[in-house]
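Here comes a specimen:
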Amino acid sequence: MRQLKRGQGWTGHVAELHPGAVLCALLDTSGERRESLVTVRVTAPLRGVVLAPDLYNFRLGRFEQGKYHGDVPGEQMERVDVALRAVLSL
């Protein structure tokens, strides 16, 4: 299985709620969400809006059934980091 790390995009069974060891932010791909301080538009590896307030834990095993799409570019991850810090009061 691919090593999990910050900034990766996944789809599939990963999006189901299960307690676990990896903290994930959901990605809305509907195109209906606006960007704000706590929502960040990303264009790669998937197009959508990262919902920083919607954080969930997943077991590592859930990623074995998901599809890896690639890494979010660094400049977009920096904006996601800002949103996560705002949501978590860091």
Q: What stands out?
A: Residues 74-87 form the longest helix (14 residues). The radius of gyration is 12 Å. The longest strand covers residues 48-58.
